[in-house]
Amino acid sequence: MARTVRWTEAATKDLEDAAAFIGRDSRFYAAALVREARSATRSLRTFAERGRVVPEVDAPDIRELFIGSYRLIYQVTADQVFILAFVHGARDLTALWERRGEPPETSP
Questions:
Q1: Backbone angles phi, psi at 105, to 5 degrees
Q2: In 10 A of CB 77, how many CB atoms?
Q3: Nearest to 62 by CA among 1, 9, 11
Q4: What is the full per-residue pLDDT of the chain (108 aa) written as tens digits?
Q5: CA atoms of 20 and 60, how far apart (whole Å)
Q6: N or C end: fewer C-beta atoms under 10 angstroms in the chain?
Q7: Is 99 helix (H, G, I), strand (E, B) or coil?
Q8: Mind spelling out the 3-state secondary structure of 27-74?
Q9: Nearest residue to 50 (alpha-carbon basis) of 29, 26, 81, 20
Q10: How far apart are CA 38 and CA 19, in angstroms?
Q11: What CA–CA distance (Å, rounded) separates 50 from 65?
Q12: What's the gap between Cα 54 and its chain centre?
């Protein structure tokens, strides 16, 4: 079954910020990161369960894929996938969600 994939505003900004940071040193690698992230999200249309469950949340509908050093975090529903965050693997995910006021249980 094909699902619709939607990026949240926060996740879109995360990706833009990551690309801008990498782009200070290499526009090539920044563009490659964006391409790889977009490609991974397209694959979630048909293979949404392929990512691992996010350990900080331990909910089967909140999953992640690794894109280089970054975590593409998403929520799976019956007919949609919501991209919740695109964060560096070294970041404290729990603190990030608390700061945003968006715990994964209430996202989209």
A1: -65, -25
A2: 12
A3: 11
A4: 689 999 999 999 999 999 999 999 999 999 999 999 999 999 999 999 989 999 888 889 999 999 999 999 999 999 999 999 999 887 777 777 667 766 555 344
A5: 32
A6: N
A7: helix
A8: HHHHHHHHHHHHHHHHHCCCCHHHCEECCCCCCCCEEEEEECCEEEEE
A9: 81
A10: 12
A11: 8
A12: 11
Rounded-to-integer distance, Cα 1 and Cα 21, Å: 36
Q: Kindly report the length of the chain.
A: 108
Tokens for 83, please give them. 């991209």
Residue labelled with tokens 């994964």: 104
Whole-angstrom distance, CA of residue 58 vs CA of residue 103: 13
Look at the alpha carbons of 28, 30, 36, 39 in this order and tell me if their dihedral is positive or negative. negative
Residue with structure tokens 């910020």?
17
Distance CA(65)–CA(1), nearest Å, equals 20
- Exposed (0-12), middle (13-18) or buried (19+): which is 3, by Cβ within 10 Å? middle
